[in-house]
Every structure is written in structure tokens, then in C-alpha cells.
Specification:
Elements (H helix, E strand, L loop, with lengths): L1 E10 L2 E11 L4 E5 L6 H9 L6 E6 L2 E2 L5 H6 L2 E4 L11 H12 L5 H9 L16 H14 L4 E5 L7 H16 L3 E5 L3 H7 L2 E6 L2 E7 L6 H7 L2
Parallel strand pairs: 3-8, 3-9, 6-7, 7-8
Antiparallel strand pairs: 1-2, 1-4, 4-5, 9-10
Helix pairs in contact: 3-5, 4-5
This protein binds adenosine-5'-triphosphate and magnesium ion.
Magnesium ion binds next to α1.
Organism: Actinocorallia longicatena
Keywords: Amino-acid transport, ATP-binding, Nucleotide-binding, Transport
InterPro entries: AAA+_ATPase (IPR003593), ABC_transporter-like_ATP-bd (IPR003439), ABC_transptr_urea_ATP-bd_UrtE (IPR017780), BCAA_Transport_ATP-bd_LivF (IPR052156), P-loop_NTPase (IPR027417)
Length: about 230
């Protein structure tokens, strides 16, 4: 479904990604792991066209999307939730979802209701300004906004980072539910425990290279522990 081949990226002269190869199949949950600063966010931004690669290709459902703009990738079914739970703080929860719906062009009101079913905690908060939500609620809203675009694949950058444990469990349950319903997911996650519970497959990045890849069971390996330890 998503195929990344020989992907390289840089900020000016500082090279950050080196020859990244991986594939996510339909319905699969792929976890991208690795310590702070190894290039996880850079990888997702390059996959989404927020950043342009210096080499390599990104294909989605057999189409080369490497030169497409971010919104064109979203329209093809790549839903993106960037790191740091981005929302429009001055808009209410309902308006945040509505604005996203209007941007998609499909104006299918049902998409909003469906996104809310994934996060029932947001329903009583529909009239509240997003800026007044807790970090965990904002993250739920950020994921709900991506769901409104009716993605075929959801791309999430550390959705549980800095969020209180009880909400982490809710977000985990929502991701698990979306995965069980057949959505493909590319998830950046630093917590091994969570990755072990959710992932089908994983890749581990180190200094911009994929240094380990495999089925989730292999995450138990001692070698993997060493690559993730801080
Ligand atoms: N806008 C930028 N300009 C220059 N360098 C950057 C920029 N963003 C990231 N970098 C550098 O690129 C490298 C990879 O950063 P990136 O944010 O992709 O890492 P990460 O694995 O997502 O880290 P974290 O776990 O902290 O989110 C780091 O060395 C970082 O300092
Ligand atoms: Mg990051």
C-alpha cells in the first residue's frame, strides 16, 4: 500500500535520512521506532511531502506520489497527524472538525460523526475551544481531524507523547480499534510496551538509517532493547 524506496532527506547541508526502504501493506500496523533525533519525524514529513526528499521515491497504492503536494496525498487517502497534537486553538472542537471536512472537498457530514465515534470523550466538548482542551483531548481531536479526511492509511507521529497515562490508554484503544477495522497505520512510537501491543511489523531508525526491521515478536530481542535504550 505504502512503499518507500531509497528515501533520503536533508536540512540544508545536514543529511538526516539515508536510503530508507520499507513497505506497509493494506491493513498493517507498522511501527517506526528509535531514540530522539534519529529522524522519525523527518521520515513522516518526507512521506507526506511536507519535506522534499533529496533522493528516493514514495508510492501509495501503486502510484508514485513523490512529487505530489501534501494535500494531494491527503486526498489520495494518506491521513497525517503530525507530532505535537496540532489543532486550531481558537476554534471549537466542532469547528475544527468542520474546517477539516470542508478542506477535503467531500463534505460528507457522516465522516465527522464517524470520527467522533472513535473518540466519544470529544462529544460533550464539541462547543469548547480546542485551546482549552487538555493535551490528551487535543491529541484525540488531532486524530479525529485526520479521520474526517477518510484515510486509507493513518500516519501518526508519537500520539502518546507527554500525555497523561489514562488518556494514553484511550488513544491506544482507539488506534487498536481503527487497526482492527482494517485501516493501515504507520505509527511513530518510542514506547516499546505500546509498540509490542499494537504493531504487526516495525522498523528501528538510528542516525537516519533503518538498522533493524521485522515482525513485532522480534521486538523482544535483546538487540532491539539496546537500540531503543536511552
Ligand atoms: N527544521 C529542521 N532544521 C534543521 N534540522 C532539523 C530540523 N528538524 C529536525 N532537524 C534535525 O534532524 C534530525 C532528525 O530530527 P527528527 O525531528 O526527524 O527526529 P525524531 O526522531 O523525530 O526526534 P524526536 O523523537 O525528538 O521527535 C535531528 O538531528 C534534528 O536536530
Ligand atoms: Mg519526532
Amino acid at each position: 500500500m505504502l512503499k518507500v524506496e531509497g528515501l533520503e532527506a536533508a536540512y540544508g547541508r545536514a543529511r538526516v535520512l539515508f536510503g530508507i526502504d520499507f513497505e506497509v501493506e493494506a491493513g498493517q500496523l507498522m511501527c517506526v521506532m528509535g531514540r530522539n533525533g534519529v529522524g522519525k519525524t523527518t521520515l513522516l514529513n518526507t512521506v507526506m511531502g511536507v519535506l522534499h526528499p533529496t533522493a528516493g521515491t514514495v508510492s501509495f497504492e501503486g502510484e508514485d506520489v513523490t512529487r505530489l503536494k501534501t494535500h494531494e496525498r491527503v486526498r489520495r487517502g494518506m491521513g497525517y497527524v503530525p507530532q505535537g497534537h496540532e489543532t486550531f486553538p481558537q476554534l471549537t472542537v466542532a469547528e475544527n472538525l468542520q474546517v477539516t471536512l470542508e478542506a477535503t472537498g467531500h463534505r460528507d457530514k457522516q465522516a465527522v460523526d464517524e470520527a467522533l465515534t472513535a473518540f466519544p470523550r470529544l462529544e460533550p466538548l464539541l462547543k469548547r475551544k480546542a485551546g482549552f482542551l487538555s493535551g490528551g483531548q487535543q491529541q484525540q481531536l488531532a486524530i479525529a481531524r485526520a479521520l474526517v479526511t477518510r484515510p486509507k492509511m493513518l500516519i501518526l507521529d508519537e500520539p502518546t507523547e507527554g500525555i497523561q497515562p489514562s488518556i494514553v490508554l484511550e488513544i491506544e484503544a482507539a488506534i487498536e480499534h481503527l487497526h482492527a477495522s482494517g485501516l493501515a497505520i504507520l505509527l511513530v512510537e518510542q514506547y516499546l510496551e505500546l509498540a509490542l501491543r499494537l504493531a504487526d511489523r516495525f522498523i528501528i531508525l538510528e542516525a537516519g538509517h533503518v538498522v533493524h526491521a521485522g515482525e513485532a515478536e522480534a521486538l523482544h530481542d535483546e538487540q532491539v532493547g539496546r537500540l531503543l535504550a536511552v
